[in-house]
Amino acid sequence: MSIEKGRISGSQLLFMFAGFVQGSALLVDFTIGITEQQSWMVILAGLVMMVPFILSYAALAKRFHGKNLVQINDMVYGRFLGKVLSLYYIFFLSMTLSFNILDVGELYKNFLMPDTPFIFLLAVFAAACAYAVAKGIEVLARVSHLFVITGIFVIVSTFILLIDQMDFSNFLPLFELPLIRIIQGIHILSAIPYGETLVFFMIMGRLNNTERAAGYALGGLLIGAMNLLAVSVRNTAVLGRTQSIWTSASFQSIRLIDIGTVLTRMDFLIGIAQTILIFFKCSLFFYALATALSQLFGLKSYLPLILPLAGIEVILAATVFQSPVDHAVITQNAGIIYSSPLIYVFPPLTLLIAKIRSLPGHERGGGT
Amino acid sequence: MREKTGVIITAMLLCVFMVFALSGCLGGREINDLEIVIGMGVDKDEKTGDILLTAQIVNEDASGRTQGSSGGGEGKAYWNVSSTGESIFEAVRKLTHKTGNRLFVSHNQVVIFGNDIAAEGLQKYIDFFLRAHEMRPTVLILVAEGRASDIMDAKPETEKFPAMNIAKLVKTYGYTSHLYKVNMKDFASCQMSAETASFAPLITVSEEEGSKDVFVPGMAVFKNGKMVGKLNHDEVRGVLWVLGKVKSGVITVPSPDGGGKAILEIIEAKSKATPEIKDSKIIIHVMVEVELSLSEQTTAENLATVPAFGKIQDASEEVVRKEIMAAFKKTSELKADIFGFSEMLHKKYSKEWKSMKDNWDDIYPTIELDIDVASRVVTTNLLRNPASPKEGEK
Hints:
The complex is a heterodimer. Chain A is mainly α. Helix content of chain A is 71%, strand content 1%. In chain A, helix 6 (118-135) runs antiparallel to helix 12 (303-319) and helix 9 (213-239) crosses helix 10. The longest helix of chain A is centred in the N-terminal third of the chain and has 34 residues, at 79-112. Chain B has helices at residues 2-22, 60-63, 88-94, 96-99, 115-120, 123-131, 148-153, 162-171, 184-191, 233-243, 306-334, 341-348, 350-356, 360-363; strands at 35-44, 51-58, 78-85, 103-104, 110-113, 140-144, 198-208, 211-215, 219-223, 226-231, 250-254, 261-278, 281-297, 368-379. Chain B has 2 domains: 29-231, no CATH class; 233-394, GMP Synthetase, Chain A, domain 3. The longest helix of chain B is centred in the C-terminal third of the chain and has 29 residues, at 306-334. The interface between A and B is medium-sized, with 24 and 21 residues.
């Protein structure tokens, strides 16, 4: 039994992947304090490191055509262990979604609407995501290219407007930082913008054709990573060593745009772009969470879960951290630890077990 | 059907509710309630030792900025208002005791630090300006030779607002390249390096025949946030030659016949500084390329000849070399690496840099500069020959 009837095409998957990774553009700042001028390398190294894992996600989608994560877990690990693992995934989806909603709230609180009640910002954003999720995956997939194009437009235009202020010697010396910091940076990057793409476990099952899923997924990942790279290069080239002191390096570099004292105060650009991109990312997270939960509980539709889940996520986002410092420290340290098994261990393990047990050949599928 | 109507009504109610909450009016401030700040001065209060903050606020009625008033009313177009506090933020908020409204600093152009504050160190005073929401990272920094509040009071003849006038003075540095504009972000960047020194334009008030004029006599040099010395105009240009920041300016050289002067305008300047470590000696190779135009001459000799051009070019190259050496000599005395040589070495010789880092103050004056200047006179403007009798007719 499947709780989603919608179908998506390969190219839509590509844009969804790209838009999802782009949605983490602000989160690139997480690594700046650790990897400083070498952040661009970490983005590329993280991408390379994630390729085999993304391939394992796509291989699972191909092997279990039409099945979602909860169904795959049930089939591979059995009803009990499978459900425990699915709960672990749901915990990850739920926490990460609340952190992302909180990111939007902090963006607005810090830079755009400091006097608006925080909880209201979170609630409105979550409501918008809930509306998108209620429309189904097909609608999100159909508009995914618009999100990607908007993101690319803002990133490219701000890059061009800041070219005169860029100093490419800010990237030197090239290999100065201790290896441990680079490894930590790669871990954060691969776990947050790239690793979070495991939400597509709940989406790839809806592909028309899973034969070329790996190609589309990697293509989308590459487009998203190139955007992150452009953001990181822009910030380092413009801000130099100060990039690590700002709450948001991207926001600060865009505030420096000054073309003939006429084209200034472009802060709104990043406000719009970031809201749109995080909205897309959160909607996909929300969709994955709602469908995974309803699959777990054996519901016929995920729609009844949307509003209660939105409420829970807003409350989580508003209460889970005491301060932005808390948020950054826990996400950089604890966050990437609890998500690591889900990103790096279980997908390849599931694939291995499925191969050994020749699944899904002997299963009747369905699970719950 | 009933269910669908319910959803539509709920959605419409939600939209109406959102119009009130998300219109941005929640933190909205009407223009007539804004105290628009265009300049700020930071001094030490002589009595208490607290911070004395002076904000230059636009007087909307007098400056004719509000609707209904035409061309401004009576009185000054600005209002310099001061308050004291233990911190800049406290002083800013305490200004509301006098203004009645919170300050709006988004349009602030300049922050001027008094001499006493600069000598004490700017590190702790710039934090507020970097951290505040409304403050732009592009706001310009200056250092007053005396008190910042006096500078803010010197009303220019052609500008309505002293702060705007000061900002204009600094932004047009390129006409002479005798100073350089430094904004909050650039200054913060230099502050973050323990080895690189930073600089900011100095500003002073000169009083002639009862009128007060502001004047930039050079730049203040900062080391670890504290002002340690000053550079005069030529020394500043010496620094800018190496940094590649010279835009334009005037170079005066004696004419080849010795009977007058050739005055040259800098059309374009490019430079490249490359560090080299040779036999444990640090050499900085500075390559400067200058394009000049003959803008004026005070001799009857025709300077638009190949031999004369050669001599003028040689002389101008010597001027550039002297300016660079003068700047290096002064900063060596101050042990202040204003050129950023430490940064260049760090980037090119990161391994060797580790051993130099701790002794950089002692190493800096021992650096050898290898200066190579190539100048070219590219135009004589509207005259081919000077307006004087030809050689044979004298």
